[in-house]
Amino acid sequence: MPIEFEFYEIPDLSEKGKSKYCARTVTLKTVSTNELAARIQHASSLTIGDVKGVLVQLSQVLADELAESNRVHIEGIGYFQVTLKTTTEIDPKKTRAQSVWFKSVKFRADKDLNKKLKYVQTERARIRNHSVKLTHEQIDKKLEAFFQKNSFITRRLFQELCGMTTITASRHIKRLKEEGKIKNENTRMQPVYVWVPQ
Q1: Which one of 86, 118, 150 terminates a domain?
Q2: Residue 149 in contact with residue 155, Cβ under 8 Å?
Q3: What is the CATH number of the domain that holds 158?
Q4: What is the pLDDT of residues 10-37, one digit of tens each?
Q5: Would you tell me how many other CB atoms lie within 10 Å of the CB of residue 37?
Q6: How many CA atoms lie within 13 A of 124 on its CB side?
Q7: What pTM was estimated for this model as a whole?
Q8: Quick one: 47 and 114 in the same domain?
Q9: Is residue 68 part of a domain?
Q10: Which domain does 142 fall in, by range?
């Protein structure tokens, strides 16, 4: 089966105003640990429980090793490494550990995995999953109306409200936070946004 893709517009922040596009894969579904375990079990003499146990334990061991400042290489799959971010511009003489924290896990595919996918076929997706093009004012009006009936909004609710993809919704939430129109009332990892009256 070919990989499905769609063309997405890249916002042009310069004054030229010329649109650029990139091709992105369209994710049809997320494959669960149970589904992976079943596929591996069919190709081996292990039970689904054995395979699932190994996969779950692999996740834990991977996290433990990354937390020890190690890079992890799984042959045939790739390399995993922790990336960091800071709250302020870095000054090596003044920046302290309290200003540096975990950002994400970076993955770089192994050559073998890349080779297996090198000649995969592609086709344009049948489902068009593009963001609705709204002005900042239109987004603000939608939010004002939403907050008249609701006390908070999540990224997923914002995405559904405005008809946007995850990336576009995240970009607009960042803008709204910077403009002081919404603020996060929950944790950084599970944000819940409230309206800030202007």
Answers
A1: 118
A2: no
A3: 1.10.10.10
A4: 766 666 667 777 787 777 777 888 888 9
A5: 21
A6: 4
A7: 0.58
A8: yes
A9: yes
A10: 136-195
